[in-house]
């Protein structure tokens, strides 16, 4: 009898087994190892490999929380196929609670440098080690992001325009109707997956202002429920998958602060709620309350993210806007 062993870095799981391990990258000056922790849950029955990634940005702890909920709740005995959980891709950034690795000032944003380089800057080497295993083993990948230390993001996602990518996004289920198109992804894990002829998507939820005890727990629960729905959609877990009935297709526009000051969202504005071009989203005022700038909707659509750190400097991210083109079928 030949059993299919799934091996990723030092993790090794036979059918029905759960294995924890690491993808080794390099060692650090103090003698410690730089590695990427992961868990392989190989189902008792065959099926696709779904790979979940968290914390490519170190100030986004929502992916790690989601992964540990899934590790508790997905039993290998019930699973068809394999679930790979990478709670934290960018470990030094996560330890520092920074977007990028403070040890690497040359390739700070790890979500822009895929597939990395084996002989590149430190973060490029991490990306290369991760991308090598990811594209070899995974059929589908979901990269979990949030608003990090600067913003709060409502549930939203980026897919490319291939039907299999849109299908993976749709499988996230109810509450995940804000679907934006990233037709030619570059530099991120979904780009590495697309280049390998596979499928990856980027999902967003949570961030600053949603890390109080109840809010953070809710974000983790919502993310884990969405991944469980994905597992049901692909028949990797028993049960019926559900779908959002308000799916829209759009393109992201990230609005940058036109002035420095205090960022004040307009009273009554709401996430994921249709707006018209020119509607006021927020104002930036100086120390005395004088208005310096007004942030307006750049098109018809909805915002899914707002700056949640009110201190703002010209050029900072202020609003993540979905320019809605129409319903997503
Ligand atoms: Zn991110």
Brief write-up:
This protein is of the alpha/beta class. It has 6 helices and 17 strands. The longest helix has 21 residues, at 213-233.
How would you describe this structure to a colleague?
There is one protein chain. By secondary structure, the protein is an alpha/beta fold. 21% of the residues lie in helices and 36% in strands. It is built from 6 helices and 17 strands. It has a 5-stranded mixed beta barrel with strand order 8-9-11-17-15. A 4-stranded antiparallel beta sheet has the order 14-13-12-16, with no helix packed on it. α1 crosses α6. It starts with 5 loop residues before the first strand and ends with a strand. The mean pLDDT is 97. Zinc ion (ZN) binds next to loops. Zinc ion (ZN) is lined by residues 57, 60, 111, 145, 148.
- What fraction strand? 35-45%
Average pLDDT confidence is: 97
Enumerate how many helices there are, as a single number: 6
Fraction in helix: 10-25%
Low-confidence stretches: none
Structural class: alpha/beta
Task: Report the bound ligands by name, code or SMILES.
Answer: zinc ion
Strand order of the largest sheet: 8-9-11-17-15
How many β strands by DSSP? 17
Whole-angstrom Rg: 20 Å
Please describe the structure with a list of short key phrases separated by commas or semicolons:
4-stranded antiparallel sheet; 17 strands; 6 helices; 21% helix; 329 residues; alpha/beta; 5-stranded mixed barrel; binds zinc ion
Give the SSE layout.
Elements: E1 6-8, E2 11-13, E3 18-27, E4 33-42, E5 45-54, H1 62-73, E6 80-86, H2 91-96, H3 122-137, E7 140-145, E8 151-159, H4 163-170, E9 178-181, H5 189-195, E10 199-207, H6 213-233, E11 248-256, E12 261-265, E13 280-285, E14 291-296, E15 301-307, E16 311-312, E17 317-327
Parallel strand pairs: 5-6, 5-7, 7-10, 8-9, 9-11
Antiparallel strand pairs: 1-2, 3-4, 4-6, 8-10, 8-15, 11-17, 12-13, 12-16, 13-14, 15-17
The structure holds zinc ion.
